[in-house]
Design a protein that fits this description.
Elements lengths: L2 H22 L5 H20 L7 H21 L5 H27 L8 H28 L13 H20 L5 H19 L7 H23 L2 H24 L4 H6 L11 H4 L10 H9 L3 E6 L1 H6 L2 H13 L3 E6 L9 H8 L7 E3 H4 L8 E5 L8 H4 L18 E6 L19 E5 L2 H14 L1
Parallel strand pairs: 1-2, 1-4, 2-3, 4-5, 5-6
Helix pairs in contact: 1-2, 1-9, 4-5, 4-7, 4-8, 5-6, 5-7, 5-8, 6-7, 8-9, 12-18, 14-18
Length: about 475
């Protein structure tokens, strides 16, 4: 295939990627965006395989077959609750692939001492460093989300000093590569140091900040892929990596803004490392908790004019998205207006609740972002909180001493009545007590979200 034809087809691929991102900004066109992006990637792979001088097609086909099987089986079998873990894992695989490309190209480009061009050595350094950090950091994020590691920040004395020393060691090795030092062992050492830094980098970050971390690591992978594109002189890889890096960076900043916290505070603040006593201990200070039953909640909902559901990770764990949709349909049949309040950082990845509810075919126009739903809450009769905690904690508005003070929240306490569906009074990812549970207008329905919604739906049918 000629270079002109290759470049033209790569331009088509780049356009499909840009349009895919554009479509993904709208829930109604997100499916089209995914299909368009996949088609563009298929074209990019086909064009790359058609290049002159490519060999070992058998090994390439075998690797692609193995990857395709893993991807299809993983995507079809993973539960929606585990989607954040899968995103972290797949993102890490991309970073690891870039690091291996850097190692292979360093070996291929240095047949004789001193023959590695400076621009190639810099791109090798960036690809190996950023790709390795993304790989190991994503694995730690996966382990925290999968609860293989504690979701709380893992900290120790002198941690920042150790992290800085490891990163400095990686940069010194990278500097030696740029200065013209030879030997595959150098890149291996660089990758090893970067892998260690990725682990140490994510360990002190708590589960409450995982959405931000996933976005940041996604940006890292994009930047590493773009650097690899320069190394391989591949335009489509340069642009695709830049798109991923830019979108991941913007999303990281937006997520930090949604939590009213700087990215530095997210990465180095060890947020959630100290639990501020929830559950029975909090109730012992004289405050009381009102509990309710599915039957009482059914009556309350049946005579409401407007009901707002606020989903959180508890809804995802219980796989209750179809049940909340079924209950909403029952209420709508009775003339009750139903909306869903979506907080930007609810769940464990950006857009987690939107994806979850879309799976249950909840109408897109009923999904309201935090800024849209908050003005509606004073005119709302009942808010039903399904497994959310920190994103509805009024301490973010009223308690300057709270770790989440200043974080924008969904103002559920401004509705007429609040029902919290939760298995216990335990704190959320932030590890702090929620005064909403003790508000006089709040009632607690202690149950798994799926079981609670099923019971309320059954009771509603009896009315």
């Amino acid at each position: 295939m000629s270079k002109t034809t290759t470049d033209l087809l790569y331009v088509v691929t780049i356009v499909t990627f840009i349009l895919a991102l554009r479509f993904l900004s709208s829930p109604k066109r997100a499916r089209q965006g995914n299909l368009l992006g996949a088609a563009g990637m298929a074209l990019a792979i086909a064009v790359t395989l058609a290049q002159d001088g490519l060999a070992n097609y058998g090994w390439i086909a075998l690797a692609m077959a193995i990857g395709a099987v893993i991807g299809v089986v993983g995507a079809r079998s993973v539960k929606m609750t585990a989607m954040p873990q899968m995103v972290a894992l797949f993102n890490g695989v991309g970073g690891g692939a870039v690091a291996l490309i850097a190692l292979a190209e360093f070996h291929n480009l240095t047949p004789l001492p001193g023959e590695l061009p400076a621009e190639d050595s810099v791109t090798i350094l960036l690809s190996a460093l950023i790709g390795s950090i993304s790989f190991s950091g994503s694995l730690i994020a996966f382990a925290k989300l999968q609860e293989l590691l504690s979701g709380r920040p893992i900290v120790y004395p002198g941690q920042q000093f150790v992290n800085g020393a490891v990163l400095l060691a990686a940069l010194v090795i990278g500097g030696a590569i740029v200065a013209g030092a030879e030997g595959d062992a150098l890149v291996v050492a660089l990758i090893a140091a970067a892998l260690l830094f990725g682990v140490l980098f994510v360990l002190p970050i708590g589960g409450a900040d995982m959405p931000v971390v996933i976005s940041l690591l996604n940006a890292f992978t994009g930047l590493a892929a773009s650097a690899a594109g320069f190394l391989l002189h591949n335009n489509v890889l340069i642009v695709a990596g830049a798109l991923v890096g830019a979108s991941g960076t913007l999303l990281t900043l937006l997520m930090g803004r949604a939590m009213n916290r700087s990215i530095g505070n997210v990465l180095f603040g060890a947020f959630g490392s100290v639990a501020a006593g929830g559950g029975p201990a909090a109730a012992a200070d004289g405050r009381t908790v009102r509990s309710t039953t599915p039957e009482d909640l059914a009556i309350m909902l049946a005579y409401a004019r407007r009901v707002v559901f606020v989903p959180g990770y508890g809804l995802a764990v219980a796989q209750a998205q179809h049940d909340v949709r079924a209950l909403a349909e029952q209420l709508e049949a009775r003339g009750v207006g139903v909306l869903y309040g979506i907080h930007p950082v609810a769940g464990r990845m950006p857009g987690h609740m939107n994806v979850l509810l879309a799976e249950a075919n909840v109408p897109y126009d009923q999904l309201k972002e935090m800024d849209e739903i908050n003005p509606e809450l004073p005119q709302t009769d009942v808010v039903v909180i399904l497994g959310a905690n920190d994103v509805v904690n009024p301490a973010a508005r009223s308690d300057p001493g709270s770790p989440i003070y200043g974080m924008p929240i969904i103002d559920v306490d401004r509705a007429g009545s609040v029902i919290v569906v939760k298995r216990s009074l335990s704190p959320g990812f932030a590890g702090i007590d929620n005064p909403l549970f003790y508000d006089p207008k709040t009632s607690m329905l202690f149950a798994d979200a799926k079981k609670a919604l099923e019971d309320v739906g059954a009771a509603l049918k009896e009315l």
